[in-house]
Queue: 3 jobs
Job 1
Amino acid sequence: DAKTTQPPSMDCAEGRAANLPCNHSTISGNEYVYWYRQIHSQGPQYIIHGLKNNETNEMASLIITEDRKSSTLILPHATLRDTAVYYCIVRDYQGGSEKLVFGKGTKLTVNP
Amino acid sequence: KAGVTQTPRYLIKTRGQQVTLSCSPISGHRSVSWYQQTPGQGLQFLFEYFSETQRNKGNFPGRFSGRQFSNSRSEMNVSTLELGDSALYLCASSLEGLSGANVLTFGAGSRLTVL
């Protein structure tokens, strides 16, 4: 029942930009898009989030389409340490309860 | 500042037993949420506590329960353990909750093995 769709896996060469897409076509107008990543067996790590405008921080950039139905996470210069599963998340609200649904994520492999 | 601390990191139980896991949030964070991660089902939301009250709940049976103390520390309990409860249990804290501009900070997890 994930509200987001991501490719299951992607590869990227070290030093190149990694562009990870996410489809969230049912997102509501006031819901944020969050990106987290999980390196094997560790707790997920927050990367970035956004509502309407593009966002940039020290880790990544987030590009959100004007209709807000999709977004792209950009790691500008991928390193081997960026190999992880990347989750694009929006809030899900069902039966009076809200939660974050992680889905399967995208396994990004950065190759030397 | 100190991160989210989960204890114990690893534990082994047998079927039918019960287990209690602990989570100490980042200082000042009032929301604590819990997640179960298995290879087959991925990361699934268990519940969220805010100001000592369960505010949101996922689709898990009543064997899974939790509580939050006045200092925001949280515990989750699983009773009558089943083999399928073997998983990495993660907790996350945030200032105010799951939505809006709230950012979750996760702990390293407690890995439970049920034999």
Note: The mean pLDDT of chain B is 94.
Job 2
Amino acid sequence: AQKVTQAQTEISVVEKEDVTLDCVYETRDTTYYLFWYKQPPSGELVFLIRRNSFDEQNEISGRYSWNFQKSTSSFNFTITASQVVDSAVYFCALSEEGNNRLAFGKGNQVVVIP
Amino acid sequence: DTGVSQDPRHKITKRGQNVTFRCDPISEHNRLYWYRQTLGQGPEFLTYFQNEAQLEKSRLLSDRFSAERPKGSFSTLEIQRTEQGDSAMYLCASSLTDRGIYEQYFGPGTRLTVT
């Protein structure tokens, strides 16, 4: 069964600080897909990034970066130089090959203080 | 590019009434998903369609819930004899899946309050 754990619930940072969100996942599949979504106060889930299990290359996209480590089943997400507009709930999600549902973690509430 | 739209955005109903929600996916997307999100939780999968075929249903989808996608375009989710426990945000998402798994794009949701 697929499972995603996001341990931290609320994280407060001062503007321009970096914030890292932890995500640990469980799956029995060898092929799977990991995602990060952002849910601002307006409520709409916004897709941020996707990573395939067979591609462990870590990347940076603007102020976002992620660290995918299969050995520890972790898919952490970092926002560099946080801004007030980054205040939102961030969800990590997992989808297994042949199983189209997304399994979400409970989310991390990020509060960026100006 | 028009995103996923949902209607209504908010619905307040009395316990025991039936409600129906509509979702219009991104036009070229062949897959459509329904999720439910309660306060402080991540979305939970309910069901999904590939074109007009409903291919998977969660245990969360009791027999009071029914979903359709009659022409492979828009979808409806109906809840019969609503209960207070049905109060939640109902999210629709769509994706284009040719090979592999593609990211799902979500609509703004329908917030249901059962009084």
Note: Chain B touches chain A through 27 residues (CB under 8 Å).
Job 3
Amino acid sequence: AQKVTQAQTEISVVEKEDVTLDCVYETRDTTYYLFWYKQPPSGELVFLIRRNSFDEQNEISGRYSWNFQKSTSSFNFTITASQVVDSAVYFCALSGLRSGSEKLVFGKGTKLTVNP
Amino acid sequence: EPEVTQTPSHQVTQMGQEVILRCVPISNHLYFYWYRQILGQKVEFLVSFYNNEISEKSEIFDDQFSVERPDGSNFTLKIRSTKLEDSAMYFCASSDLAPDSYEQYFGPGTRLTVT
């Protein structure tokens, strides 16, 4: 069975602080994808990144960076120099690559509040 | 940029009534999904649909739920007899499963309130 654990329920930081959101996953699939989505107060799900299981390179996109470590089954997300607009719930998700259905399994989310 | 659309944005219905939530996936996508998010909780998979049939469904997706692709563009989720616990945000998603660009594109959601 697939499972995603986001142990941090809520995090509160002050603007310009760096913050790391943790994600640990479980899967028996040898090929899988990991995702991060942002859900702002307006409710939509905003895609941030996709990573496949064969690519362990870390990725940086502006103030966002992701650290994928297969050895610890983790896919952590860091926001550098946080801003108030980063306040949202962030979901980590996992998808296998079985033919016909590649449902996303989501973690419970981490609510990030960035205070001015 | 192509996007998934959903209507209505908010639906209020009485317990026991039937509701149909509508989605227009991205036009060249072949795989369609419904997810549900009860307020304050995580996003949960309901059902996936490919080649005009259900490919996988969760235990949440019981006989009260059905999905349909009635024409070439719409993808619908029907709840036959709504219950209070069906109140949630329902997200539609679509994907093409191209390995190099695999992503599920989500619609903005329909907030269903059952009273």
Note: Residues 86 and 114 of chain A are 7 Å apart (CA to CA).
